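Running this now, will post back.
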Amino acid sequence: VDALALERLASQAEIEEVAFENGDPALTVYRVDPEDIDWSPENSHVLDFQDGPRLIGYDIPETLFRGDTVNLSLHWEVPGDRQGLPNRLAFIQARLEDASGNVWSQAENLLGYPQSGWQEGDRFVQFLDLEIPDGMPPGPAFFGFGIRDWESGPYRVQTSPAGGSDTASPLAGPLIVRSKPVSDFVLDADAVVFDDSLALLGSSFSTLIAPGLPLDLSLDWLALEDLAEDYQVQLQITGPDSSVVVHEQRFPMWPGTYPPSEWGAGERVTTFHRMEVPVDIETIDNPNLRVQILKPGESNSVSMTQGANTLAQMTWSLREHDFELPQITHPVSARFGESIELIGYDLDESDSQPGGELRLTLYWRALDTPSDGYTVFNHLVGSDGQFQGQLDSPPIGEAWLTASWLPGEVIVDERIIPIHPDAPGGLTRLVVGLYTAGDLVRLPVYLDGTPQQGDQLELTEVLVRP
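Update: finished.
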């Protein structure tokens, strides 16, 4: 029995300490009149498990701190149709998820009330210790519950418990995960402090930036007091003296998840931001990256109490842009989506055999700057529909990120496509297409204005020599 259970029993019971003959403590007896016991769960949550007990609620602190281990008490009830079941080795489970469904912690414990002794209306409590990882992001958290055994696996949740209310959502919550307040913290004299209430302790990012490529960074904050505002971050790329701003972008801080107005005094929070660097940005010499804090709906930044808000001097990573049409062996006029055109290709089939390779050069032209970074796929498809060779990668070369292409720019994409060692050989179709890596959605393909089946373009047929 855990400390929470003992605390509750002690408030309602007569307690007797029993000792061994030598005087050492042997056990503690708690005597409670059943009519005096009212151990209702602090949080109601009904889940009815087929051939298992019914979850009716749980006890947990309202606020969870990262790095702590919390005691979770699960309250169960035996329905009338589940008496005298054979004993099974079953385990009670709990997991902790963030608002995006990522599981950060889970625990399980042996079901402590054997099934053969169940009687209708019996109530029992199961205890679990659940760790809150240091790396879990602050904000809303949810609990998921389950039961499993060695023979049948997870117990199925019934859509409506017999004789009870409708089953609740499989997830309970939300509860709030916070960072532990920092005690006796002394700010460095050069630490950046905004509005006398929010300090920037550090940041992490690459100082190398390129037109069209996003800049990802993290900012480490310390709330000096309970914050009353949902501050927003504004990042700026400026000239060396910060008087000329060439680009700026504004970001909320954990919007809808853990906004600053929920941060407590002494709490450390890390926020993550992606600054989109325009492909046509002015590449001013010796640019700086600067951070500001603004209040919602206001355009002027809040005052700085101390420190300087220039994070770093940045370095441009620039590449040549070619707008001249090269000599192309096989001209093509195919459009991929709204912004990309394939104007032709070269192909070297001299090593077209199992275990060999094809050398393919694709010539792309940007009709406009693409809105995303796309992956190019090349497939060698046999007559049976099976792949005999494949290469999926962004365009190969300095212009690998399609979102960095300028309108009218010509991109030379030199690719080596490996042929499977066990390829059966024969005529194969060489196809090409583009997709977004995050969702694998292909761009539609049009050849001379005609939509292509499967959102892919057949370039030619290749003979794989056995």
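The chain is about 0% helix and 45% strand. More later if anyone needs it.
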